[in-house]
Amino acid sequence: MEVTKMKAHEIHEMLKKGDIGVRELTEVFLDRIEKIDDKIKAYITVNREKALEQADRVDAGIRKEENTDVLAGIPMALKDNICTKDINTTCSSKMLHNYKPPYNATVVEKLEEKGAVMLGKLNLDEFAMGSSTENSWFFTTRNPWDLERVPGGSSGGSAAAVAAGEAVYSLGSDTGGSIRQPAAFCGVVGLKPTYGRVSRNGLVAFASSLDQIGPITKDVKDCALVFQAITGFDPKDTTSVNTPVPDYEKILDDNIKGLRIGIPKEYFREGISSEVKDRIREAIDVLERLGAICEETSLPHTEYALPAYYIISTAEAGSNLARFDGVRYGYRNMDAEDLISMYSTTRSEGFGPEVKRRIILGTYALSSGNYDTYYLKALKVRTLIKQDFDRAWEEFDVLVTPTTPTTAFKMGEKTKDPVSMYVSDLLTVPANMAGIPAITVPCGLIDGLPVGMQIMAKPFAEDVLLKTAYAYECHRGFEITAPELEVN
Amino acid sequence: MMEYEAVIGLEVHAELKTKSKIFCSCSTEFGADPNTQVCPICLGHPGTLPVLNKRVVDFAIKAALALNCDIAEYTKFDRKNYFYPDLPKGYQTSQYDFPIAENGYLTIKINGKEKRIGITRLHMEEDAGKLIHSGDDIARADYSLVDFNRAGVPLIEIVSEPDIRTPEEARVYLEQLKAILQYTEVSDCKMQEGSLRCDANVSVRPKGSSKFGTKTELKNMNSFKALQKALEYEINRQIEQLEKGIPIVQETRTWNEQKGITEAMRSKEEAHDYRYFPEPDMVSLAIDREWVEEIRKSLPELPVERKNRLIRDYGLPEYDAEVITSSKALADFYDECVDIYDNPKEISNWVMGELLRLLNANNMEVEDSPIKPKDLVGLLELQKKGTISGKIAKQVFDEMFETGKDAETIVKEKNLVQISDVGELEKIIDKVMEANPKSVEDYRSGKERALKFLVGQVMKETKGKANPQLVNEIFKKKL
Q1: Which of A107, A446, B230, B428 has the fewest CB atoms nearer than 10 Å to its CB?
Q2: CA-based angle A429:A433:A436, to the nearest 5?
Q3: CATH topology of domain B422-478
């Protein structure tokens, strides 16, 4: 089998046996990127030279058996809102098109330490605001299953690169579904960890109280391995939580007998494609056959999650993006005559329309006289949503829902109507609002396009999530692999 | 004419003298080259997060306890959003609705009368950087540069109740507050370096009224004197307006030191909407009561206690004790002198007279004084031994201040040793008597004052070095 189709744990065995070297492996991926990425357009920056340097270093480490880590030498890539020292980190924005961070994100440090080989930086919706990568200042990434369709977003580049074999795994970030929705659209596994589980240090903030970094992988085992590597308390992020990290690989088995699964009816209402619902029901059947106890339940405040999310996330974003003022780094309009016009032209030209829309929304929501009506109210809704989930955990170990209302839509289909685009995050946003972990795992196809099943669990119960997803994946009875691209 | 009274409240910012900044490990040292004490965090690089310096909370609690505040059990940080080039993140991380401390007070004393000024709140925040304009002022500058060394230096803001009624009360309140912050060693409080800054809210109303008038906010007062003068000017301006029937406009005004007036800066409509909201990059704090009690126990002697000690132990007059304890550094200077030279009153005369005169004239703080306690004591000992006269001592003191040399060196170099040799003095006295027969005559006919003149002539002749006691004695003998 071609290595570009293989999982990290499979490649690890080859590296261990000496069947392939890290440099050779890295070159295979770099060549593939060169060959197919003009079709997929997942990469903003290809990190060829530094990747090969790192490959040589890791090769030596593996040969001397100094580095036996499962992720050692595995080529991966990062969403381009995760800071990499001296390597462009653009957030897909004109504002940061030439920005080279002076430091590495904590997750980058952690992966580098394990010997990961970083192939490059992946496309996203500008500042992670969007659900299709169509808001990227550079270009739109294509869905490897159908090049006319979007890969989802905002981590569209991260999902497409993994699905198309341009990286073994990738990291994305998830503020309202930005890992899970593209992972579902591209037929790969995506995990949004519990808020506070993974350090946000070095993740360019969109909405600080919602953002989490997480893995996008080809299977659940890889997901567990990558999650293991990036998780844990970080003194540089005081919102990260200091709780013990279990050995996730060890807990992976397919025994879910007696697992209590809740099926929240609000996630199966109108607006959700009936074929998507069918795929999820089939997946639930698989889980039941494995001995799980499935029961319908209710999360009554679900419908308020999306509007409240658009208040809280934009309020935080408006403030988080204030630092992009042209003074210290990034884009600046050099013709401005005075300070105010420097600010306004820099920001008018540096940000795209969706980012500006959200800054304006967020500024409005926090303005004097509006705070109580919008922001404070949204915080109250957030509490109600958390309470819905808290009640659910009294009865259930996990909740199972569709990840997205539909499969991947066509490019341009939703760009005219922002609200229709926002609705594609309807089912993923509640987990961010509640801070709980959620995973998406492929559960079938509709007209040749993948569907994702979302599993949610209580805070810090990623082990239960991974175990459930793993059991399902082992017994679903099919493999999901993107069709091979025709390359001249 | 109607009688008015002013209602004044002060907002004071003090930089805390922690070694590192509030959210990163950069140094807070004053005076370094521009942008040498910066890192991705205090420069507001994307993706960076604040990590609260625990010492800042320590210091804030310490100051709050010294100001008799209640320490919050729950406190959090908020973002104050506005754009300015010296503000790296586009917001200042500050505290809004749950400050670390509230409900304190400070007692001031004017003309022997004590008055309690309430403190509404004390909160923690970060300082901004500093703009350096290419010209003399911002309006004519071709360009401006930003120094971010100060960005992220911890501040406490102390907001008083509107309990202050006169510009003098305001000045004394600020002096007292400065003393407390210095005594607790949380801040240097150097107004010229900007580590202590003060804004004032002021309104006037008919005396006896309980309603507040429309207030203005005054900024840019860079000294205690400026605060008092700005308030005096502004209160008069407001009264004159009201007398003419013109209502006061709520606005921010800036003190123009050169012109001695306050000038409109921005109106209420132009005021920022700061859009405060909870800082999502930080967790809220629960302040442990044991922690608070530990800090309370560590509180040092405060100005009032120290003043009372000086009166009690050294028998200083209340006025002397008050001046000396007005600054911790001055009181420390004083105590150090008294430890090695047992004449408290003489030391207080020198400290309050010569030392403060020269420090003020040179716009310097006690800490920067070239004359250290041992130097002053060295001088006093020379005088006591009779090596130099009191008059020469003052001259030597000036010289010591200017050159930083010790008294003995200066006395030797300048040959200022007192002339106590009777033979030598007699020669000079004979010369003076010869040259001033009229005065000799006057004295002999009973005019006592003539002796003073003659002694003065001897001093003049010896450039002040003659031992005045001996000169007197010899004269009396000869006349």
Answers
A1: A446
A2: 95
A3: Arc Repressor Mutant, subunit A (1.10.10)
